[in-house]
Amino acid sequence: MINIGDFVTRKSYENDIVFEVIGIEGKECILKGVDIRLMADAPVNDLVVCDRGKISDDFFPSLDFVNSLDRNEYFYLPGKVLHIDGDKSYLSRCMEFYKKNNVLAYGKSVKESEMYKEIPKYLQQYNPDILIITGHDAYFKKRDKENSNNLYKNSENFCKAVKEARKYEKSSDKLVIIAGACQSNYEELIKSGATFASSPKKINIHALDPAIIATSLSLLDRSKEVDLISLLEKTKYGKDGMGGLKSKGTMYVGYPRNEA
Asked: Would you give the DSSP letter of residue 251?
């Protein structure tokens, strides 16, 4: 017996991902990834109830440059983050991650199809250095074989949102945009103006991957160029899940530090 709120895996996918059951329609269950930004459906007889397991966001490589800051001489103003997410629970998890790493971030939960309408307002309100546009997405391989034009669940919505953000600020040096979710159309997101995007290999990404990129750039000196390969390796699936353009940090460094 499967119930809403149960944690399950799919036998047909070798029990690779833990999901929460968020809906049941007849003999079909609607599933949401616990760690992975993935929505799916599956027949009840394909599911196995399991433990949620301990969710830890400490598995990522440490953001070691944070610990190397010279607190005795200089003061630091990390880049400001605006995180727009189609999923409230993933957004909450990302906001905790920013807080843990002392990054000033503002989060808004907006349905993917409505993001392009809302983003100009929030950009004006918060004037961020880094904008995240994420939520849920999917690549429909079967439709690709049928030569369908609609191959992605939300990539088009993400692209529209990125284009609206670029009307506000054209330069990636002034506004870094991180866009996409699981299996998103990486090439089109970059063409639309994203600085970083998912997913080069059309794979799933971790709930925190966009926040990892944003936090790393927020805490990197504006005068320094990011080590792109090293940065992507900090995400759960590396260059297969996230990719992007060479960029600089967004943190201001000042002197002297006020001791008062």
From this structure: B
Q: Which residue has the tokens 């993917």?
A: 112
- CATH topology for 64-253 is Rossmann fold (3.40.50)
Write down the domain spans for the chain: 7-49, 64-253
Question: Nearest-CA neighbor of 154 among 193, 196, 184?
Answer: 184
Tokens of 245: 């353009």
Query: E strand or H helix at 34, and its extent?
Result: none
Question: b/e for 91-107, b at 16 or more Cβ within 10 A?
Answer: bebbbebbeebebebeb
Start-end of H helices in 6-154? 64-67, 88-100, 115-126, 141-145
Distance CA 127, CA 168 (A): 10
54-58, 90-94, 219-223, 226-230 — which is least confidently predicted?
Answer: 54-58
Mean pLDDT score across all residues of the chain:
90
pLDDT digits (tens, 9 = 90+) for 142-174: 776 665 568 999 999 999 999 999 999 999 999
With beta carbons less than 8 A apart as the criterion, state whether 151 and 121 touch. no
Cβ atoms of 211 and 132 closer than 8 Å: yes
pLDDT, tens only, 234-251: 999 999 999 999 999 999
